[in-house]
Amino acid sequence: MAKRVAVVLAGCGVFDGSEIHEASAVLVHLSREGAQAEVYAPNIPQMHVVDHAKGQPTPEQRNVLVESARIARGNIKDLAELDVKGLDALIIPGGFGVAKNLSTWATQGKNCSVSKEVEDVLRAFHTAHKPIGLCCISPVLAAKIFPGCEVTVGHDTECEQWPYAKTAEAMKELGCRHVNSQVTEVHVDARNLLVSTSAFMCNAPIHHIHDGIGKMVREVLRLA
Known about the structure:
Layout: E1 4-8, H1 20-32, E2 36-41, E3 49-51, E4 56-58, H2 64-71, E5 76-78, E6 89-92, H3 96-100, H4 105-108, H5 116-127, E7 132-135, H6 139-145, E8 150-151, H7 166-173, E9 177-178, E10 187-189, E11 194-197, H8 206-223
Parallel strand pairs: 1-2, 1-6, 2-5, 6-7, 7-11, 8-9
Antiparallel strand pairs: 3-4, 10-11
Helix pairs in contact: 1-8
């Protein structure tokens, strides 16, 4: 039987939702590996809406579930309906929506809170010993919820290639072990069944992002 994988989205668009290329890569690689993706998102307002052409917030209001449905081509469920019993794994793509809509990391960093629905889902998969795949900024959710876990967001030294490296330092302050990695690599925390890859935390060619996410997906399915 095909493995069933929950994919949790945070909106549509890198600056206020899920990073579209990352979400698409997850869905493509799951399909290629013969797995069945089931897409979910919380039915909540976005923190704000960003005009991606200008890089500036707008006065609009949008809903995370409604916007995520754009990526899922309408085939999406409310995160409140997720039942871990019927699923084999969980994957959360990145994008600022993870730090704005699934948590308050964007405004509070290591002192953030994770939304109750998202935390409940992560804990349910963890308790059931089912693997969790995380890319880009989404490993911060694990760092906040599972003290002592091991993840990667790429490198911990800021430079032109790694503009968000300070994230790794904040995660370390939460008691997380950050493992430096290249964009095409993944890190597997075998004890917690966490698989992470840096994706767009790195300024890299898009096919390298795609390749790293493919490795993450394959490792998640191997562990499922």
